């Protein structure tokens, strides 16, 4: 079987695979770099791995056009590995772990599927790209992560928290809504959280994914000037 695999090596088809996977790797890296800069969960390496895996599976399918049974099995492999990858993704509080591992499993499945189709050189090439995404891209990930975070352009969830006495909740809620409306910020929701016998926190979540820090500071200053307000602050998180 191995002899048949090497005998079936096609330099022209292999070159086509090199071009396809290289293009997917470069474009996936470019897309992932933007996601990494904005501190999203699926960052640079995850996008590169998924792009390479997808290109590999499509390339295998095109190469196995004359073997319907193999193509059918390959489709089941793609679906099954998707469920397997979902099993390694875990959410811990606001953080999500395992996306890169799931994408790596997908790339490993592509390498294995290619090897099973007797495309040995292509299998080695895919494994090389998967390893490159997980190793050579790490310095670029670290470089992007060290860049100052621009709150004005980063996609994030913004919350304003105002501590207020229970007797002033309605008045402060109205003032908070008006202050945000005046600066054209839509509010997704405002909830209350009990913190003491006579004190609650009003938590306003903005509907947009970007905001101007200076404007939010002005809203907080306006809230601190309201009667009955004990404290006020705003925060952002990018893990969603």
TrEMBL record:
One of its GO terms (cellular component) is plasma membrane. The chain crosses the membrane at residues 12-32, 44-64, 70-90. Residues 21-142 form the MgtC/SapB/SrpB/YhiD N-terminal domain. It is found in: Cell inner membrane; Cell membrane. Keywords: Cell inner membrane, Cell membrane, Membrane, Transmembrane, Transmembrane helix. It is a multi-pass membrane protein. Residues 158-234 form the MgtC-like C-terminal domain. InterPro entries: MgtC-like_C, MgtC/SapB/SrpB/YhiD_fam, MgtC_SapB_SrpB_YhiD_N. Belongs to the MgtC/SapB family. Virulence factor required for growth in low Mg(2+) medium and for intramacrophage survival. May be involved in regulating membrane potential by activating Na(+)/K(+)-ATPase. This is Protein MgtC. It comes from Phreatobacter aquaticus.
């Amino acid at each position: 079987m191995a002899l048949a695999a090497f005998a079936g090596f096609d330099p022209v088809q292999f070159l086509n695979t090199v071009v396809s996977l290289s293009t997917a790797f470069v474009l996936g890296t470019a897309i992932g770099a933007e996601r990494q800069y904005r501190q999203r969960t699926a960052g640079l390496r995850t996008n590169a791995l998924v792009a390479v895996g997808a290109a590999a599976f499509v390339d295998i399918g095109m190469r196995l056009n004359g073997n319907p049974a193999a193509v059918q099995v390959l489709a089941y492999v793609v679906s099954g590995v998707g469920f397997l990858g979902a099993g390694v993704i875990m959410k811990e509080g606001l953080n999500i772990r395992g996306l890169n591992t799931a994408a790596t499993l997908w790339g490993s499945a592509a390498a294995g599927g290619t090897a099973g189709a007797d495309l040995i050189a292509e299998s080695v090439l895919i494994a090389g790209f998967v390893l490159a995404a997980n190793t050579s891209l790490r310095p670029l990930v670290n470089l992007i992560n060290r860049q100052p975070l621009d709150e004005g352009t980063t996609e994030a969830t913004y919350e304003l928290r105002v501590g207020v006495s229970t007797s002033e909740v309605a008045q402060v809620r109205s003032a908070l809504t008006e202050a945000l409306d005046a600066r054209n910020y839509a509010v997704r929701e405002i909830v209350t959280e009990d913190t003491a016998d006579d004190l609650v926190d009003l938590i306003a979540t903005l509907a947009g994914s970007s905001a101007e820090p200076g404007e939010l500071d002005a809203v907080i200053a306006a809230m601190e000037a309201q009667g009955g307000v004990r404290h006020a602050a705003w925060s952002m998180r990018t893990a969603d």
